[in-house]
Design goal:
The protein is an alpha+beta fold and 248 residues long. The protein contains 3 helices and 10 strands, in the order ααββββββββββα. It folds into 2 domains: 92 residues; 129 residues, Cupredoxins -  blue copper proteins (Immunoglobulin-like, Sandwich), CATH 2.60.40.420. A hairpin with a 2-residue loop joins strand 1 and strand 2.
């Protein structure tokens, strides 16, 4: 099963994979039971073993048996998966690093058909002259919580990180948020999981996960590149949004 899904490069991705494995095993067990019952019926009620006996399932025993089987499947598969998912969401995926000073904060702006990423510069504040802005490239250090806040300039997009088992919509007029943590270096794909227009297929970015030292070196180079773009003309790919609130 693991060979058919994207490689998990995140700290919490195994929780999502665990839910999928549980549902797969549980539904496979139900399927096997159904097949066995059908085979038993075929073998013991085949032609030549006496007169056929027909039933329409209207006896009380049939009703009770059906209710018990349905309840067992509902509790054993649906309720267990829902409970595990709710616990994982509350304890991990929705446990945002609002007050974690080590978290890297990035503002993400979606538009047809690109992702713009903004980092705070040396002053540690957004919307100042030393902000670092990149287009379709998100650079992050490993073993560091990455805290994203997202907006859209036009239509609904969906920020999707298949290697980190998470995604969130970017909605016009709203700010959404997402966090993840990379546990290994690498280059991973960022996709848009919401059809957003005729060039939706082009809305692809890359996530580069590197060591903390390599990330700081990249950030210094990117700061210089952003400053050059500001000096030589209008800002390139800098989102026209204000009022990002990092205090809540």
């Amino acid at each position: 099963m693991s060979a058919r899904i994207p490689h998990d490069a995140s700290v919490n991705g195994h929780l999502v994979d665990g839910i999928f494995r549980y549902i797969f095993v549980a539904t496979t067990a139900c399927f096997i039971v159904v097949v066995v019952v059908m085979l038993v019926a075929v073998v013991f009620h085949r032609a030549g073993r006496g007169p056929a006996h027909y039933t329409h399932g209207k006896h009380q025993v049939s009703y009770v048996l059906t209710a018990l089987v349905a309840a067992a499947i509902f509790v054993g598969v649906d309720l267990v998966a829902m409970r595990r998912s709710a616990d994982d969401l509350r304890q991990h995926f929705w446990h945002f690093p609002d007050r974690d000073p080590a978290a890297l904060r990035v503002e993400v702006t979606a538009q047809q058909w690109a992702w713009t990423f903004r980092y705070a510069g040396a002053d540690g504040r957004f919307d100042t002259a030393d902000d670092v802005v990149t287009l379709n490239e998100l650079h992050v250090p490993v073993a560091t919580p990455i805290y994203l806040k997202l907006r859209s300039k036009d239509v609904v997009h969906s920020f999707y990180l298949p290697n980190f088992r998470t995604k969130i919509d970017a909605v016009p007029g709203n700010t959404t948020r997402l966090w993840f943590e990379a546990r290994e270096p690498g280059t991973f794909e960022i996709g848009c999981a919401q059809h957003c227009g005729v060039s939706h297929y082009k809305m692809r970015a890359l996530l580069f996960s590197t060591s903390a030292d390599d990330f700081q070196r990249w950030l210094a180079r990117a700061a210089g590149d952003t400053a050059l773009r500001r000096d030589t003309g209008p800002p390139v790919a800098i989102p026209d949004v204000d009022g990002w609130d990092w205090e809540s």
